Amino acid sequence: MLNRLAYRFHQTLERHFPEQRLFLKSDTETRFIRLRPGTQILAIVGGTLALAWTIVATALIMMDSIGAGSAREQSVRQQALYEERLNTLSADRDLRAEEAARAQERFNIALTQVSEMQEKLLASEDRRRELETGIEAIQDTLREAIKERDLAQAEAERVTVALNAQAGTATELGRAGDAVATLEFLTDALGEAAEERNEVLAEAEAAREEVQVIADAKEALELRNDAIFTKLEEALTVSVEPLDKMFREAGMSPDDLIGAVREGYSGQGGPLTPISFSTSGGAPTAEELRANAILGGLDRMNMYRIAAFQLPFSMPVRDAVRYTSGFGNRNDPFNGSTRRHEGQDLAGSYGTPIYATADGVVTYAGWENGYGRLIKIKHQFGVETRFGHLSQIRVEVGQRVSRGDRIGDMGNSGRSTGTHLHYEIRLGGDAVNPMTFIKAAKNVF
Length: 445
Prior knowledge:
By secondary structure, this protein is α+β, with helices and mostly antiparallel strands. It has two domains: about 85-275 and about 285-310; about 315-330 and about 345-440, Glucose Permease (Domain IIA) (Distorted Sandwich). About 60% of the residues lie in helices and about 15% in strands. It has helices at about 1-15, 35-160, 170-250, 255-265, 285-310, 435-440, and strands at about 20-25, 30-35, 320-325, 330, 340, 345, 355, 360-370, 370-380, 385-395, 400, 405-410, 420-425, 430. Strands 3, 6, 7, 8, 9, 10, 11, 12, 13 and 14 form a ten-stranded antiparallel beta sheet that branches. A hairpin with a 4-residue loop joins β9 (about 370-380) and β10 (about 385-395). The protein starts with a helix and ends in a 5-residue tail after the last helix. Mean pLDDT is about 75; it is low at about 265-270.
């Protein structure tokens, strides 16, 4: 039964895949290879599987390449947007600093005017008090003069009766006339003093109104300055915090880093310095302290920007790569022993361009055991980067390079099992994980 089924199955296969013979002819003999139906089916299935695998692998490679290209373009766009944002913030910083200086100058002028008006007001008050005192004295004198006038009038009536009887009547009448003249003089003086008092009171009222106008203008200016300061403080917070986080994640102290940048700073214009105002020996105002705090934040952001371009916060390869051996202990591919791997391996195509990851000076460019063709670049703050297993070196010792300059090509030189870049970062001579710097900068650049 089984033989019959096998025979029928074989007959069916031969109808679709008849037996084929492949003849091999030589000078002396002719041989042939028999291709049975089963062999043909196995060959077709194997070829189909190989073709399918080739199509799938090609699709995966193309998708990986397209994804890597999109990520690289996105990184370039993010870097351009960040640089544009830095330039915009720098221009806005200069504009706001200038506006703050002008506002403070207007504020000082207003304070001076208020002080002058207060002095005038105090002087007018003193004068008014003096006039009131003088008026009271004149009033007292006038009361005495009125009393003397009344007495003089009574005496004049008395002496008039006795005018014909006494010889000294003319003398008494003269005294009475003098008293009346004195009374008239005091009355005129009192009227003039009252008019002068009214004029001083009017000047004092005008001074009060002018002081109120200046006080209102000062309050409006303070509100406008507060709005400007608030916007600047918000912009600084949004811009400085990502940079501060980037340096901390890279294992570097931002304060020490800024101190080192400030010591070696030689850029145009110099670091931003606090505004100093004349306070006549007094404590600075809240506006001055706030303006100086904003200038300090802008200076910190400027120092961060300088430090970021002097440290390796970028990728050494822009083409599609695979992250292979990472930083730390691993099994040696040559002898299987455990060894410390002091860098990050990036595998790609032979001859892929390699770029400097920060501004620096080339200190080594040549062959070194294990590394093969090696480039060492010295950066600021005791940082060094190394690029190993290169196929070609495009820089020389002593050459100054900038971030993004092409320095070599990816290769397979030295102690290597395939085409890749061995990338190292060293702080003070000690190797650190390069991925720390790359990941720290991914949300900033």
